[in-house]
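[job 4471] stage=fold_predict status=RUNNING
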Amino acid sequence: MEELQCALLGFSSASLPLEALQASRSAVGSSGARHSSALLSHLHPSERSLIDETLPLGTMCHKLRSLATDFAIGRTVGLYISAIASAVVHILQSYDQSVKEALTPSSVASLRPMYFDAFSLLIEMIQQQKNTDQLLLIIQSFLSNREIPQNFRVGLGETIW
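[job 4471] inference complete, writing structure tokens
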């Protein structure tokens, strides 16, 4: 469970390498895919399912953490991306605490419904930071999405406002 928690926080390891698990979804014939499928083949199907379902959060967390780091050291340029980065810092603090408290498979599984939509839209915002019109549409989607916890929507709205 600790290994999965580390992967969910964006850290890669020999047994749960984020890159290899991502490669297994995109390029079935790669060596990373074979390595990760060999690791996953030794797990119980429910464990495999849990990993497949929740590990994308770790990959997204890693990307968001790099934005938070850039923001912390002053490398973000632009009003919107700086506001988004500020909100990301607060969301990641909540996510880190949730992952640390997730000690059972059911509590780990409950992370995806709470964070997946928020992380997906935040990453989309980062990718569209040069296109302001598209960025504003994504921000509007984030703020109006009732599946995303209210405190995340309020936090992003306040930092942008």
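[job 4471] summary: Residues 27-35 have pLDDT under 50 and may be disordered.
[job 4471] exit 0
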